[in-house]
Amino acid sequence: MKNGRGLAWFLGLSFIPTWVYFGVAPLYGIDMVNPLAQLPFAFMPAIAAVLVRAFITREGFADAGLRLRLKASWPYYLLAWFVPAAIAAATIGTAWAFGLVDPGQFVPDGGLPLIAGLHLLVVVLMPVFWGEEFGWTSYLRLRLFPDRPVLSTLGTGLIWAVWHWPLAFNGYMVFDSWLIGLAVWTPLMMTQEVMLAWLRMRSGSIWPTSLAHAGNNMILSWLTASVLEDAAGLDNVTVMLVMLVPMTLLSGWIILSGRLRDALTARGSSVSSRPESAAPRR
After folding, report:
1. Which of 2, 30, 65, 98 has its C-alpha lying 20 to 30 A from 174's C-alpha?
2. Block mean pLDDT (10 aa), the chain, length 282
């Protein structure tokens, strides 16, 4: 009962203020592409999780993953730091395999120095992306179907995607067809959540997940947009479709190989009444 009440409050506190802001902001000339305009909603899931943990269910923060765990979890920080660039390279390679981009367009404007700079920037911006991850991956995913890590992760990814949908109508994401755009954007975000959830469960900390989220936004999205949209002239839906290929392969491997279930058993990162020896279901 407490879990259901907490979920209802969390979703209400995450969605209602955010969607109101999404609707009102354009009326006051606020450009949602401006990073400063994104800050008010970027922290709403974390604020919701804090309020629910502290005042609604009063369950506290024991399983919130707030510790850095650098000594124990440094391999996951490295994965979170560098895998977004690897996925970007795989996406560009996939586009080349389909004849959508020429090799001469592979290196974005600014080249390697800019890419290196972005890798430093994501470390600085990690606390900003904690604002979403502390809510979605460190609260919702732990409470939604807690004994079924695959269903919990995919459900969290779907809810996370739906939370973003109004951005397709206020200038942040411009689609020729919003229906097709959302139909592609949604599974893309669900595949991202599989990777983010795996990092959270394996590391026992929300910080590698926040770093990976920063990398997805600042490195993966920027590299693919720079090469495939700006240089090759592809539209954003085509770029997302191409990106879905490596993202689906990676997230599918994580799921089908049982790594989400293994990670749940290894860290005990889900809130559940089941004995530790019980095998989690999909």
Report:
1. 98
2. 88 98 93 93 98 97 97 98 98 97 88 94 98 98 94 98 96 93 98 98 97 98 95 97 98 95 63 37 49
Burial class (CB in 10 A: 0-12, 13-18, 19+), 165: middle
User: Do 87 and 250 touch, CB atoms closer than 8 A?
Assistant: yes
Cα three-residue angle 133-9-274, rounded to 5 degrees: 75
CA–CA gap between residue 192 and residue 117 (Å, rounded): 23
> What are all long-range contacts of 271-278, with beta carbons under 8 Å and residues at least 24 apart?
271/3, 271/63, 271/142, 271/143, 271/146, 272/146, 272/147, 274/147, 278/147
CB neighbours (10 Å) of residue 159?
19
Exposure b/e, 237-264, CB count within 10 A at least 16 = b: bbbbbbbbbbbeebbeebbeeebbbbbb
* DSSP per-residue codes, 192-209: HHHHHHHHHHHHSSSHHH
Asked whether 138 and 206 are in contact (CB, 8 A), the reply is yes
Task: Please state, in angstroms and rounded to a whole number, the distance separating the CA atoms of residues 13 and 192.
Answer: 23
Q: Is 172 helix (H, G, I), strand (E, B) or coil?
A: coil
Instruction: Measure CA 280 to chain center.
Output: 23
- Whole-model pTM: value is 0.92
Q: Which of 215, 192, 191 is nearest to 77 (CA)?
A: 215
For 108, the token pair is: 């974005």
Tokens describing residue 48? 């919701």
Residues in the chain: 282
Distances (CA, A) of 188 to 61, 155, 157, 181, 226: 30, 13, 9, 11, 19
Interatomic CA distance for residues 43 and 131, integer angstroms? 4
Q: What is the CA radius of gyration of the chain?
A: 19
